[in-house]
Amino acid sequence: MRLTMYRVLETSTGKKRGMSLVFNVVLVTIITLNAVAIVLHTVESINRKHAVLFRDFEFFSVMFFTVEYLLRVWVSVENEKYRNPVWGRLRYMVSMSAIIDLLAIFPFYFSLFATDLAIVRILRIFRIFRLFRISRYSHAVRLIQRVVADRKEELVLSVMFILFMLIIVSSIMYYVEHPVQPRTFSSIPATMWWGVNAMATVGYGDIHPITPLGKLLAGIAAMMGIMLFALPTGILTSGFLEHLRLQKGARNYCPHCGKEI
Amino acid sequence: MRLTMYRVLETSTGKKRGMSLVFNVVLVTIITLNAVAIVLHTVESINRKHAVLFRDFEFFSVMFFTVEYLLRVWVSVENEKYRNPVWGRLRYMVSMSAIIDLLAIFPFYFSLFATDLAIVRILRIFRIFRLFRISRYSHAVRLIQRVVADRKEELVLSVMFILFMLIIVSSIMYYVEHPVQPRTFSSIPATMWWGVNAMATVGYGDIHPITPLGKLLAGIAAMMGIMLFALPTGILTSGFLEHLRLQKGARNYCPHCGKEI
Amino acid sequence: MRLTMYRVLETSTGKKRGMSLVFNVVLVTIITLNAVAIVLHTVESINRKHAVLFRDFEFFSVMFFTVEYLLRVWVSVENEKYRNPVWGRLRYMVSMSAIIDLLAIFPFYFSLFATDLAIVRILRIFRIFRLFRISRYSHAVRLIQRVVADRKEELVLSVMFILFMLIIVSSIMYYVEHPVQPRTFSSIPATMWWGVNAMATVGYGDIHPITPLGKLLAGIAAMMGIMLFALPTGILTSGFLEHLRLQKGARNYCPHCGKEI
Amino acid sequence: MRLTMYRVLETSTGKKRGMSLVFNVVLVTIITLNAVAIVLHTVESINRKHAVLFRDFEFFSVMFFTVEYLLRVWVSVENEKYRNPVWGRLRYMVSMSAIIDLLAIFPFYFSLFATDLAIVRILRIFRIFRLFRISRYSHAVRLIQRVVADRKEELVLSVMFILFMLIIVSSIMYYVEHPVQPRTFSSIPATMWWGVNAMATVGYGDIHPITPLGKLLAGIAAMMGIMLFALPTGILTSGFLEHLRLQKGARNYCPHCGKEI
User: Fold this and answer.
1) Which of A35, B95, C54, D78 would you call most buried, defined as having the most Cβ atoms within 10 angstroms of its Cβ?
2) Cα(C110)–Cα(C124) distance, rounded to whole angstroms?
3) D255–B256: do the CB atoms touch at under 8 Å?
4) Where in the sequence is the signal peptide annotated (chains A, B, C, D) (predicted)?
């Protein structure tokens, strides 16, 4: 029976595939409804009308997630990786996936004793990650994961380089604009708020240079920003292409001699 | 005669190619003029001057489109897919293309009895899609269609991932900025308006964080947005490349027997 | 002597290469100075101080460009394409390059009789295109030209598709926002000003939706804009890759059998 | 002993690899702390509280960097390139890396005699480039460097082309908007501030056209900007792909003899 439950909860292929799909659809629906509830809960007018509904749904969700969590811990020993009844279960409980599940229910029990911690409620949204485990998208998820993992070094470097240029540009801008606009460009950290929005080409308009030199620098920063952000785009694209080639590379056979090429 | 009409209306190759081209140019011209009329119709000063012209052109367009629609239904049985005189025609009438054509003329007849429904007039613009059927662009349209269809899973996933990050970022931002700006960041849905414009780097400037923590989060969101939007770009580019390679793939040789494959 | 002059003026390789380079550097310098003069001329404080200098440089430039134009017409018959003394020269005079050269000097002579036409002075900047003919960059220019020419159909289609979506989105937005903001969203053309800035993620902040439905639509428009603008990026990238492969493809030889591959 | 010191200071592989790593971590930590200090130093409230700490850390950093600089000059002769005791050291001192190191400590000694030059303090941040020498990232750095070097011509051309279009668009916009908004679009250089932010899609909102013709031009400029900035993205991506293919190129076979090439 534990094996059956394991198949329903954790696998999306093989036996009990239908049951597993049904369970996953129910789970994803409840998680999505939770996300909707968390978002709508903050709209004053809606919250006032449906306060009881929100509280009841909150209670129901936490109960459902608690039972699910306990079941997952119970059946975890069916997994090759967590064979040992005690240590295996403990090792499952410190896995990324299990911690996210626990964080989603923990705040509720905590709030029974302490005051409400609004920010921890967001943790429940992270459970939406489960959505990506549905088999239909698992292929695409794995492709994206592998490409990002493969190009990790180049991507980290791009981000580091962007951060580095951000500090340089903001520092120079501070010394250029501070004497003229001492309140908006009050410090380098304040100027970095301008810097990040200039290089990412957001431009809210609450802070921008007014001196000719500052404007010249801002123009260079905007162009540089686009060039710098072209790096991760190029890196990701080349990664996608290589993976797609590898996938199809193994499947090519010569129609004349029949050998793999 | 029905076959001749079919060739003029529906095909852009083979016999009656010249007639078909002439008809398509006339059709596209009328559709384009309709788009122009719909757009200019809303400019007060132009509408006041040429009110009669707009009304007459509206009447003429609807008549033209009605005759065209009836003809298309009549000749549809010439198409392999809609052979049956009754069921074939009905099946043609529920095809995407025919529904759009009907929606373009329906509002006019409806408004004879009911009040004017301004928004449905926009449906007429959708007929501009016919523009893409002109043979000159049909190759490029098909290429783009195939690439998008081929990469559908990855593209849907990218959009889902962007939406997911949007909810997470907006939820956190709400709890950070709400206490300081209770009116602008009034709820999570209101904060999502900030979120989408920050991640897409639009930045209208009507809503932006003012706390240091909020600004840090906004900077991270802007960078993350660019990275996330690099995913669909990379996916589309790799898709284009693969399709172009398949088309020109004739240059591959087997390493074992040396023959072209 | 006409041949020598032709080599100096028109070719950047072969005999008289040194002379040609010197002449090109002088020409590009004068064109660049013209661009600087045209730009700085509009700064009130600079114009007042150096009014005489600007006028003299204007006169000198036009004289130089006039002599150069006449010489180019004179030597044009040395070119294979324009052999005939009369018709060849006339055909050269209606070539793109010659027309730009003429447009750069024409306004000056015209203004001796008529009033000053400020906007035509900009035509002189177009001569900066000559800059791209310097041999160092000619390879890169040709690469970019070929890629754009090769992908012309797809690029035109992308632009058409962007324009089409712009009309659709702006029309819907007009009917959503007009009742609430009748002055900013006064007509569909006015709303298209919002539309183009939303889809290109500029966001000046002078016009943006305030209704929830309008904000939802604006969010979709921003995301759609990024996706749509990813199309030309992907198309251009794939074009670059293919050309680079073709260039290198012809140069590959097998080290074992020596045959081209 | 000089050789040992050389290995610790300059190499990150071979003998003394462990020592070298420890030294590099210490160096990068001090440089990073310097960057943090330079940034936080400008925040009034923090500077007032920790003025002594900032001064002491400044003194310590300069001492550390001075000793490090002198050691590097001393051991530079161990490098193949700088064999000669006198000329080799001098040649090392005028290398890019050594000049940056000197510029990082020079301002301090200069300020003992002269007034404080705030802007030169930024030079110290440039030392953060040393961060990129840590072996973990050296592969990725070299890849990015090679790609940029390989596509230098095309990238320079793209930037030139963007600048050229910027001048053209701004000049036309000036003549269109100047009569209506003489204060914001006061001159072509002032209009170029609009131009760069429009083409890079920043859009601060402090300057934007209000005439219909100006708005049309701004819409075209925004679209053109995205297309133009797609060029460097495409160029970089194709560069990345080619380099990665060269690295993995071992999988190519000759179609004639079937051997690997």
Assistant:
1) A35
2) 14
3) no
4) none
CB B234 within 8 A of CB C231: no
C212 interface with A at CB cutoff 8 Å: no
Q: Best interface-test mutation with D: which of A159, A235, A260 has the largest number of D CBs within 10 A?
A: A235
Phi and psi, residue C253, nearest 5°: -130, 145
Across the interface, do B222 and A202 touch by the CB < 8 Å criterion? Answer: yes
Closest residue of chain B to C151, computed from CA coordinates: B140
Which residue's structure tokens are 């959505």?
A131
Question: For residues A208 and D77, what is the distance between their CA atoms, to the nearest angstrom?
Answer: 49
Contacts of A139 (CB under 8 A, 6+ apart): B153
Phi and psi for C252 in degrees, rounded to 5?
A: -85, 130
Per DSSP, D82 falls in state G
Select from C39, C197, C237 the residue whose CB has the most chain A CBs within 10 Å, as the one to mutate to test that interface: C237
What is the helix (H) or strand (E) element at residue B76, kind and residue range? none
Contacts of D75 (CB under 8 A, 6+ apart): D2, D3, D5, D6, D9, D10
User: Closest Cα to residue B215, out of A197, A161, D180?
Assistant: A197
For tokens 């596509």, the residue is D151
Residues 75-104 of B with CB under 8 A from C: none
Cα separation, B27 vs C1, in Å, equals 60
Q: What's the DSSP call for residue D133? A: G
What are the structural domains, with CATH classification, of chain A? 2-133 (1.20.120.350), 150-249 (1.10.287.70)
Q: What string of pLDDT tens digits covers the 261 residues of chain C? A: 788 888 887 766 666 777 887 887 888 788 888 888 888 888 888 888 988 898 888 889 889 989 988 998 888 888 888 888 888 888 988 887 787 778 777 777 776 665 555 555 566 666 555 555 554 556 667 777 888 888 887 788 788 878 888 988 898 898 889 889 999 999 889 999 999 999 988 888 888 999 999 999 999 999 888 888 887 877 887 787 777 666 654 445 455 565 554
Do residues B37 and B125 lie in contact, with contact meaning Cβ atoms separated by under 8 Å? Answer: no
Encoded amino acid at B67, one letter: V
Q: How far is the C-alpha of C211 from the C-alpha of C86, rounded, in Å?
A: 68
Burial group, residue C185, by CB count within 10 angstroms (0-12, 13-18, 19+): buried
Average pLDDT of span B148-177: 84
Residue given tokens 């794939």 in the structure block: C238
* DSSP alpha helix (H) spans, chain D: 2-10, 17-40, 44-49, 51-75, 87-93, 96-113, 123-126, 135-150, 152-177, 188-199, 212-248
Cβ(B151)–Cβ(B236) under 8 Å?
A: yes
Taking only the tens place, the pLDDT of each residue in D163-214 is 888 988 898 898 889 889 999 999 989 999 999 999 988 888 888 999 999 9
- Token representation of residue A32: 């999505």
Determine the pLDDT at residue A67. Answer: 92
C114, with CB counted inside 10 A (0-12, 13-18, 19+), is exposed
* Predicted complex ipTM exceeds 0.85: no
pLDDT for the residue numbered A137: 57
Which pTM does this prediction carry? Answer: 0.81
Q: What is the pLDDT of residue A118?
A: 57
**Shortest Cα distance, chain A CAs vs residue D78, angstroms:** 30
Give me the DSSP letters along A71-126. Answer: HHHHHGGGSGGG-STTHHHHHHHTSHHHHHHHHHHHHHHHHHHS---GGGGGGGGG
Q: How would you label A70-96 residue by residue, b for 16+ Cβ within 10 Å and e otherwise?
A: eebbebbbbeeebeeeeebbebbbeee
The pLDDT value given to residue A256: 58
What is the signed CA dihedral for C156, C159, C160, C162, rounded to 10 degrees? Answer: 160
